[in-house]
Amino acid sequence: MTRALAICLLLVSTAPSLRASDKAVLGSWEGDSKCMVPDSPCHDEHVLYQIAEDKKDPFQLNLDGYKIVEGAPEFIGTLSCHFESKTGALSCTSSTKDKDDWEFHVMGDAMSGRLMIEGKTLYRRITLHRVPK
Prior knowledge:
Blueprint: H1 3-13, E1 27-35, E2 45-53, E3 61-69, E4 72-84, E5 89-93, E6 100-107, E7 110-117, E8 121-130
Antiparallel strand pairs: 1-2, 1-8, 2-3, 3-4, 4-5, 5-6, 6-7, 7-8
């Protein structure tokens, strides 16, 4: 084995990634997303969020959001997230031009959160529970 190949293999095997405690947030979460702004285009929804590791960035998570319509999931979009296992905080944002700030707190098999827009307006409150595998 060449020295360069050995170094590459060492770097790959020691590359940082999510800690086991961070992986506690991975999986499917289901619950309700309630609108907080009257007379807005927002609608209360029953939702399913699927959280997975990002394949390109080992420290990032992706949250795929679905609203449940007539019993079937409809894809809403993907959020980029970071999880802090010590505090149970999951922070997310979309890749759109909107200034959105999704903040969740994970407590075992329950998660609660909110969507703030423009940095100051509480737009949604979200309550979720883990979906068993």
